[in-house]
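Q: Got a minute? One more chain.
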Amino acid sequence: MPETTRESLTQGSWRDLEFEPFRDGVMIHWIRHFDGGQPGVALLRYEAGASVPRHRHDGLETILVLTGTQSDESGDYGVGTYIVNAAGTEHSVWSDTGCVVLIQWYRPVTMLEGN
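A: Always. Here it is, folded:
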């Protein structure tokens, strides 16, 4: 099995993975770090009430919500929602309930508020 394979994520296998701090109230499990122009892929686990400050996407970002609800200024996204944020778009992100998302960034984001 390739090192980057994670099985049964939609059935909750993410609970057995190691996460590290990413932002206040948000933990990360890297599946693939940004490397040589390749996109970064990770799981983000938001505690209830956690948020990521306003940021700009310098490349395409895609998100699949695995548990809970993730929100931004455009709406609330529940389990199974697939979100595409185009390069050049800006938003902040939060989760009132807590959530886990699978995320792929083609380039790191530029923070516009806070850190």
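A: The radius of gyration is 13 Å.
Q: Perfect, thanks.
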